[in-house]
Amino acid sequence: MAMLEATGLSAGYGPISVLENLEIHVDEGEIVVVLGANGAGKTTTLRALSGLIGSKGRVRFGGADISRSKPDARAKLGLGHIPEGRGTFPFLSVEDNLRIGGHLLKGRRERHAFETWFELFPILAERRKQAAGSLSGGEQQMLAVARALMNRPRMLLLDEPSMGLAPMVTASLFQKIEAINKQFGTSMLIVEQNANLSLKIANRGYVLESGRVVLHGKAADLLDDDGIRRAYLGS
Ligand SMILES: Nc1ncnc2c1ncn2[C@@H]1O[C@H](COP(=O)(O)OP(=O)(O)OP(=O)(O)O)[C@@H](O)[C@H]1O
Ligand SMILES: [Mg+2]
User: Fold this and answer.
1) 129-139: buried (b, 16+ CB within 10 Å) or exposed (e) per residue?
2) What pLDDT digit, counting tens, does each position of 142-171 carry?
3) Which atom of ligand 1 lies closest to the CA of 208?
4) Considering only CA atoms, which of 57, 53, 54 is closest in space to residue 25?
5) Are residues 171 and 60 in the same domain?
6) Does residue 83 lie within any of the structural domains?
7) Crossing angle, helix 167-184 and helix 107-120, to 10 degrees?
8) How far is the CA of 47 from the centre of ligand 1 (A)?
9) Burial class for 1, CB neighbours closer than 10 Å (0-12, 13-18, 19+)
10) How many domains does the chain have?
11) How far apart are CA 77 and CA 71, in angstroms?
């Protein structure tokens, strides 16, 4: 069953149209990657899906029509969004960032969420009192992921989680993302320019060009595709 399904999705900024009739879906428990060059409309796609910008067309999530729902209503239904640039609060501690992510939780449920994500991200437990801004880039991205997970979303939208990270750090981040997907069944839609590592953990992928899907298929087939290799894998 489709967890998230966008049909005829069009969106832009004022008079500027960016997305044109996008058809994208993510099945329950799937990891799906959206590839595309700078300006292809990847971030705009995630914003339209989480309701941060208006759009035309239809978006269904967990069987419900959320096309006209506000971002907080979509979040409450279990659609989490980790924006480009992570969106954590640099002057607040790791713990307080997580607390804000889990603002719907109280008492025992909040403590339980802390335990769950500190177990998965031991480095965050070690640095729980440290300001988020003093963490390394990789640790900050882990914090952004853990924060989005505090409310146990059914699905996460991730905007270029590997941005600015060294390849080894990216690999370990993607391992965590895969582990979360396996352990909790969280569906993932990941926007990436770095195709190689993301396609390796993904079920399927889409390629965007100028706000349109120009190619989609199984991740393994995209990794083998000559055009994709030249454009996104540098070989
Ligand atoms: N707030 C905005 N106002 C006007 N135009 C915007 C705005 N944000 C993005 N755009 C335009 O929309 C188009 C798509 O941008 P978008 O950020 O979705 O691309 P992207 O694929 O995420 O690129 P990148 O890989 O650089 O993050 C670009 O032409 C961009 O200039
Ligand atoms: Mg972007």
Assistant:
1) eeebeebeebb
2) 999 999 999 899 999 999 999 988 888 999
3) 21
4) 57
5) yes
6) no
7) 130
8) 11
9) exposed
10) 2
11) 10
Q: Which of 18, 20, 207, 213 to mutate to test the pocket of ligand 1 (most atoms within 8 A of CB)?
A: 18
| Environment of ion ligand 2 (residues, CB < 5 A) | 42-43, 84
**Do 104 and 211 reside in the same domain of the chain?**
no
The stretch 27-36 carries a mean pLDDT of 97
Same structural domain, 142 and 164: no
**Whether the CB of 14 sits within 6 Å of ligand 1:** no
Please check whether residues 158 and 227 belong to one and the same domain.
yes
CA of 131 to the centre of ligand 1 (A): 30
Q: What is the pLDDT of residues 86-121, one digit of tens each?
A: 788 999 999 999 998 887 677 888 888 888 899 999
Using left for φ > 0, alpha for ψ between -120 and 50, and beta otherwise, residue 16 falls in: beta
Distance CA 198, CA 152 (A): 22
